[in-house]
Amino acid sequence: MLPTLCRVMIATICCVSTVYALGPEMIGKPAPAFTLRTVDGRSALSLADTRGQVVIIDFWASWCAPCQRSLPRLAALEAGKSGIRILAINIDDDRANALEFLKRNRVKLTSLYDETKKVVDGYDVPEMPSALIIDRKGVVRFVHPGYAERDIEIMKKEVEGLL
Length: 163
Known about the structure:
The protein is of the alpha/beta class and 163 residues long. Helices cover 33% and strands 22% of the residues. It has five helices and seven strands.
């Protein structure tokens, strides 16, 4: 286990990156397909299973301080809107850390585990958290690396425009 100071430094570096690979070039293109198991390992879900819904994909890690603030707010957004699905894709090296985070923070979202990091690499995610919104036809309509408190309201407006 890394000392707390090292984890904070790593999270800070990862969360303030200025490389924006998950950027505007993805808008208007089909979202890359994937199938992942849930964090608890009990079932699997593919992106194709969500066709017909507006989907927010949020990439997160338990060590990322902004993720700790964003996930509960995303869960509240999903609970307050019909026709929206949030897929929270975890990239922790140890699944147990993700499970503990979800339990400790009482986060109720569809949480998927990217054990091999193929999905996060395929989406070329530059930092944690990073989110994108996919329309009912599977096309990327909005991308947003990073997180600030105002971002949930921005995503909410984007989603409302697609519902």
